[in-house]
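fyi for ur records
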Amino acid sequence: MSTKKERLDAICGIIQTKVISNQEELLKELEDSGFSVTQATLSRDIKQLKVAKVHDGNGDYVYRLPEEGISKQAQPEGKKKPNIEFSGNLAVVKTRPGYAMGIAS
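which gave:
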């Protein structure tokens, strides 16, 4: 019987090395690796690892680990750093359209 840590490491390895677009594919890969997991357990593991579905640029959504998704999306090539200007005790943060509420909260 495998431990939870081994299972989580296996999930990370699969997501990093293969294109996985849904839980069924991930479950099959885990079973091929020798893990016996229910869909409910897999769902909890995905939530614990903070795995997200991100657009891959080809019209599909794939699973990515947080550090992969953030680094690829937040730092596109040639993208400038956030524009922040200070005036006394105030800071003005210029954002992309639609991002102001998220940054403000």
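The beta strands are 52-55, 61-64, 83-87, 90-94. thats all i got for now
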